[in-house]
Design a protein that fits this description.
alpha+beta; five-stranded mixed β-sheet; four-stranded mixed β-sheet; 14 helices; about 10% strand
């Protein structure tokens, strides 16, 4: 689980970072911005899962070091060490729980808010479904009204809620407003933004998800303006409608919906563009999204750190052959002195694994030879017991956990390093 989360975080940082760079280019159309952001959110989950299932990059190298001989002696003494991994996991779980509670509360508030709304006059409902058929929506659109709304809002997959003050608007004005909200339904913006909010709640350690949500809010509005104009709305009338809606009270915040105007958005730019008779974007994000997704996925698969299974098997054979060689002999792409220095920094934590059991078993002693793999990025991908005379699972699992938390220098050449590291535990 931790390995998958770490891999996903790396991939998400790369993909969303690319999306942020693309979004900074003024000449990039909104369709491409939207596609790149959506791909940046989805693709890291796919590539991280593929890597977890054993998919290997196109280019992989391997490096080997011989077993290192270091003895860690320890005597019984009090220890106040804290398991950092457990502490971080507890902090993550706590933040995620609070985020999930808030997300559920927002959805409940939205459900209550929509439940109190009531149907609009039949003429408005007919107009909305006429535009929906032109847009290609297969489901019947439900249009509601409520005095509590201060801006048109798209909810779920087929619901639009209008403020009461719009019921007396002209047909041309309603056509533009309904077309805009139907654009959100066609693009599935309510579900997409709700899903992003859930990811932010459950994965608070990835701040780029918040950036992705803000960017999606920003690009979805001009795209829906363009859709509304494409479906027959008058661009100038829609522009004045946006201006009027913006002068009303701010709509309810914190709800995972798509709405017509948003505080801090590019409303002025949208109005100027519509008055000038232009479209903010053209429709065609599907092809752009597929192309961008394929490129990002391919880049992550090729560049993401992984392990060559054949290299690992070759490493096992080489380690067996080199076990009797001089301890000064160097192999592979990471000097053993660097490995030894990192482990010695953690030796007090490893010693604590033994000491806490020594209080219960005063005669406990023996040798534990741990085998672990250093990935191309320096993290420990896997640790296991190669052989042991200690025969105490509590100490062995604790030591392996400490080793998996270590971070080593990046191996030269980008390959993996297989290490056999013996520890001799004694109360003397």
């Amino acid at each position: 689980m931790i390995d998958f989360a770490t891999t996903w975080w790396i991939h998400a940082s790369l993909a969303l970072g690319i999306a942020a760079l693309v979004d900074c280019i003024p000449s990039v159309p909104y369709t491409l911005r939207d596609a790149v952001w959506r791909v940046g959110v989805v693709v890291p989950f796919v590539t991280a899962a593929m890597q977890s299932l054993g998919l290997e990059p196109v280019v992989t190298t391997a490096a080997i070091v011989e077993p290192l001989q270091v003895i860690g002696n320890s005597a019984p003494q009090a220890s106040t060490s804290i398991d950092l991994t457990h502490l971080l996991f507890a902090a993550w779980a706590t933040l995620s729980l609070f985020g999930l509670i808030r997300w559920l509360a927002d959805h409940r508030a939205l459900a209550v808010w929509a439940r109190d709304a009531y149907p609009v006059p039949a003429s408005i409902s007919q107009l909305a479904n006429e535009i929906a058929r032109k847009a290609g929506l297969r489901r019947q659109v439900r249009v509601l009204q409520t005095p509590r709304a201060t801006s048109p809002v798209a909810i779920g997959s087929h619901t639009i809620v209008l403020p009461d003050r719009l019921l007396g608007a002209s047909e041309d004005r309603l056509r533009g407003i309904l077309g805009h909200e139907l654009g959100h339904l066609l693009r599935r913006d309510p579900q997409w933004l709700s899903g992003l909010s859930l990811l932010i709640a459950l994965l608070p350690f990835q701040p780029l998800l918040r950036l992705a949500r803000r960017a999606q809010l920003r690009v979805s509005e001009p795209l829906c303006d363009s859709l509304s104009v494409q479906w027959g709305a008058d661009a100038r009338i829609l522009a004045w409608s946006l201006k009027d809606v913006a002068t009303w009270q701010h709509h309810a915040r914190g709800l995972p919906t798509a709405a017509m105007t948003r505080p801090g958005g590019s409303l002025t730019h949208r109005i100027r563009h519509l008055i000038a008779g232009g479209h903010a974007a053209r429709i065609g994000a599907r092809r752009l999204g597929l192309t961008a997704g394929a490129c990002v996925a391919a880049a992550l698969i090729v560049a993401s750190p992984t392990v060559d299974a054949n290299a690992a098997r070759r490493s096992d054979t080489s380690l067996q052959d080199s076990a009797d060689r001089s301890p000064t002999t160097e192999f592979g792409a990471l000097d053993k002195s660097l490995i030894d220095a990192v482990i010695r920094e953690e030796l007090s934590e490893i010693r604590w694994c033994y000491e806490r059991r020594l209080h219960e078993e005063p005669t406990l002693e023996g040798k534990l030879e741990a085998k672990f793999r250093i990935e191309p990025d320096g993290r420990v991908g896997h640790a296991e017991v190669k052989q042991t005379t200690l025969n105490d699972s509590a100490v062995e699992q604790c030591v392996l956990g400490r080793l998996e938390d270590l971070r080593f220098p990046d191996p030269v050449g980008g390959g993996i390093v297989i290490v056999s590291y013996p520890f001799v535990f004694s109360a003397d």
